[in-house]
Amino acid sequence: MSCRILVANQDLEMASIIATELKSESDDIVCIGDGLKLIQKLKAEDFQLLIMDYVLPELGGIELLAQVRKVKNYDQLAILILSTPLEDVSISAAIEKGAQDFLFKPYQRTQLISRVHSLRGRFIREDDAKAKKEGQYAFGKFRLNVQTSDFYQDDVRTHLTPSEFKLLEALFRRRGTILTRDQLIEEVQGSGVVVVDRAIDTHVFSLRKKLGEFANLIETVRGIGYRISAQ
To answer: Are 214 and 199 in contact (CB under 8 A)?
Structure first.
């Protein structure tokens, strides 16, 4: 499945430069210059990845993210935010509102390509459709059966607690996407169960021990949360 990319930047020359840098990732890249036109474009056409400057004319920031997610859900569109460290950006808030990754400017071309490659991978993997149908996720040496709550490494079953399984399943299901601690708490928390930030960190620590040599599969995004790479 091809990946259509929409680049939103008030400097259309810069948007064109970004598009040129990403030619290896897609041959179908559209550039746009403001937030309102961005929403109109998403309503009219299908894209799999949005690279969005945090500050855009007409409509931008958290408000724009909220509007984008009203038009396209997580399964339809991945969002990468570009911002400068000087902008009043709460990355955690942006992730909560629907962004899936971020990159501070100035950035290196290799960093941009790496982030885009990871996010676009969500839309070219055939196993995700199979996972929804069969209730199972296959990823490299790992297999996660959501119907039986079993986790396998090289076909060897690894025991996980219910909380650990829910956490790993959430990360597998949305791999390539940063999940904040609050989002992971929602995934893990069951009826009558209270989970806090520190508990999520403890579950991740325990999961990494059980993953052994593959512990670095779960990446820490400092100050925000965790993710599993889509690559």
So the answer is: no
Element (H, E) at 102: strand 101-104
DSSP 45: S
Name residue, tokens 């396998």: 152
Domains of the chain: 5-123 (3.40.50.2300), 127-228 (1.10.10.10)
d(CA 225, CA 58): 31
In sequence order, what are the beta bridge partners of 51?
7, 80
* Residues 65, 41 contacting (CB under 8 angstroms): no
Task: Provide long-range contacts, Cβ within 8 A and 24+ apart, for 67-70.
Answer: 67/35, 67/39, 68/38, 68/39, 68/42, 68/98, 69/97, 69/98
Specify the residue for token string 């100050």.
223
Q: Give the pLDDT confidence score for residue 153 in this predicted structure.
A: 86
**Interval 93-143: pLDDT, tens:** 888 888 988 888 888 888 898 888 878 766 555 455 556 666 777 777 888
Q: What's 122's DSSP letter?
A: G
DSSP string, 169-188: HHHHHTTTS-EEHHHHHHHH
All residues at 6 or more sequence positions from 23 whose CB lies less than 8 Å from its CB, including other chains = 29
